[in-house]
Amino acid sequence: MLWLVHHLLLKFPPEFAHQVAVCFLKIYQYILPKSFVLSQTKVLSIKIKGLDALKFPNRLGLAAGFDKNAECFASLSRVGFGFIEVGTVTPLPQTGNPKPRLWRVAPQGLINQMGFNNCGVEEFKKNILHFRSRCIVPILANIGKNKSTSNESALKDYQQLFKELENEVDGFVINLSSPNTEGLRDLQSVEFLEKLEAIAPSKAIWVKLAPDLSQEALTELLEKIRSSSKLTGCVLTNTSRKIALEQYQRMEGGYSGTKLFETSLERVGWAAEILKGEKTLVAIGGVDSTERALKMRRAGADLVEVYTAFVYQGAKFVKTVASALAD
């Protein structure tokens, strides 16, 4: 039955299909028992320097972008994910970029130009509080600045998000790398990371970086993350504007999917060499099979995330890969 529903959803326009999927997951979430316990692989304890250990049922997580408003994360935890990113959330609600803004491209890829459409942190926080007791996997809030906020004022947006969500989530992923908010990627700098350190709460905090950075620029940022007493690690990588432009002739938007894998794998390898196991490395980008997930692990990733492959392959894919990543 689930296979049939998933197959039918892929026949609809991608953003509409996503909205329908979230709607079904929201309905399912209301019937989940509050005391429900996952029967998964043994609980892993990922040690994070300077912080209490976070416990993950498995090493496979869902990346940000699916549950933008923290509406269905409890249901998603039942699918088999070991942790879930919710968001990207911004301080104020915003509608995002004009539609159409999400396209399926072959083979098993997506190009999105969503633009951080979300309900805003106030409603987002209410959703987390309402359903948190029904979900035992770690929840990470992916946070970003509003489109109307200038880069000069961006720090205030992140500070507000830290303050509002610090006690409601298990950690943060700082999104500085979406290609769909003008000027956001300019914040990928050592200077801005230092400013973030000064306001960071005592929580696990990862920085999500773009695949289109040069090796020199990425190395500089990774060395800063490694030396930081506040930053837990990094997430590599976000969507690629370069692939969207060069291979699909899309002037705007970012590509995710199978063609991103080699680029992401290379950057995960660079990061592992620089971080030397002192920080937690989360790999994402083109992971559409067990083999590719294991390659990310061998390259040095502590945790692996998926998004596009989940959209195309469904829940069975999640359980298969999560099992393969078990120690």
Give a quick set of tags describing it:
globular; alpha/beta; eight-stranded parallel β-barrel; 327 residues; TIM Barrel; three-stranded antiparallel beta sheet
User: What is the H/E string?
Assistant: HHEEEHEEEHEHEHEHEHEHEHEHH
CATH architecture descriptor text: Alpha-Beta Barrel
Our count of helices gives 12
Helix content: 25-40%
Main beta sheet:
8 strands, parallel, barrel
Description:
- With 327 residues, the protein is an alpha/beta fold.
- The protein has a single domain (46-324), classed as TIM Barrel (Alpha-Beta Barrel).
- It is 39% helix and 17% strand.
- It is built from twelve helices and 13 strands.
- It has an eight-stranded parallel β-barrel with strand order 3-4-7-8-9-10-12-13, surrounded by six helices.
- β12, α10 and β13 (303-306) form a beta-alpha-beta unit.
- α2 crosses α3 (73-79), α7 packs across α9 (261-275) and α9 (261-275) runs parallel beside α10.
- The longest helix has 17 residues, at 14-30.
- The chain starts with a helix and ends with a helix.
- The relative contact order is 0.14.
- The model is unreliable at 36-42 (pLDDT under 50).
Short description:
This protein has a single domain (46-324), classed as Alpha-Beta Barrel (TIM Barrel).
Provide the fold topology.
Blueprint: H1 2-9, H2 14-30, E1 44-46, E2 54-56, E3 60-62, H3 73-79, E4 83-89, E5 102-105, E6 109-112, H4 121-131, E7 139-143, H5 154-165, E8 171-175, H6 190-199, E9 204-209, H7 215-227, E10 233-236, H8 241-248, E11 254-257, H9 261-275, E12 280-283, H10 290-299, E13 303-306, H11 308-313, H12 315-324
Parallel strand pairs: 3-4, 3-13, 4-7, 7-8, 8-9, 9-10, 10-12, 12-13
Antiparallel strand pairs: 1-2, 5-6, 6-11
